[in-house]
């Protein structure tokens, strides 16, 4: 366990990233649910299909939402741990530009 304290900017960035992950996950889940449940609401389907589609939409939408949160936060953590040092990005790029020209 590390005892490094995070700066306010790092905590704010993590808060924004969590909010982004949750908002996009809700939107993805809602779109998946709507795409699967819409036919049951619009057309006259057999009762089995009319019950199955909204249930399947809820399950698939929930799974996609959870996967979206995991993906966004995992990507954020990997970017935080391994910042890019390509020319033109961030401080390393600024320093390299100063040295070269």
Helix content: over 70%
| Intertermini distance | 43 Å
Counting DSSP E segments of at least 2 residues, the number of strands comes to 0
Radius of gyration: 22 Å
Shape: rod-shaped
Which structural category do the helix and sheet elements fall into?
mainly alpha
- Tally of structural domains: 1
Q: Are there runs of 5+ residues with pLDDT below 50, and where?
A: none
In sequence order, what are the helices and strands, one letter per element?
Answer: HHH
In a nutshell, what does this entry contain?
By secondary structure, this protein is mainly alpha-helical. The chain has three helices and no strands. Helix 1 packs antiparallel against helix 2.
Secondary-structure blueprint of this entry?
Layout: H1 8-42, H2 47-81, H3 90-100
Helix pairs in contact: 1-2
InterPro entries: DUF6332
Keywords: Membrane, Transmembrane, Transmembrane helix
Protein name: DUF6332 family protein
Walkthrough of the structure:
This protein is mainly alpha-helical and 101 residues long. The protein has one domain. Helices cover 80% and strands 0% of the residues. The chain is built from three helices and no strands. α1 packs antiparallel against α2. The protein is rod-shaped, with a radius of gyration of 22 Å. The model has no long low-confidence stretch (mean pLDDT 85). Keywords: Membrane, Transmembrane, Transmembrane helix. Pfam families: DUF6332. It comes from Streptomyces katrae. This is DUF6332 family protein.
């Amino acid at each position: 366990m590390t005892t490094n304290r995070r700066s306010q900017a790092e905590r704010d960035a993590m808060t924004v990233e969590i909010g982004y992950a949750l908002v996009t996950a809700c939107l993805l889940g809602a779109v998946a649910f709507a795409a699967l449940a819409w036919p049951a609401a619009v057309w006259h389907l057999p009762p089995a299909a009319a019950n199955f589609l909204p249930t399947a939409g809820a399950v698939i939408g929930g799974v996609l939402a959870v996967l979206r949160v995991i993906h966004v936060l995992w990507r954020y953590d990997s970017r935080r741990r391994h910042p890019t040092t390509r020319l033109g990005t961030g401080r390393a790029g600024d320093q390299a530009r100063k040295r070269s020209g």
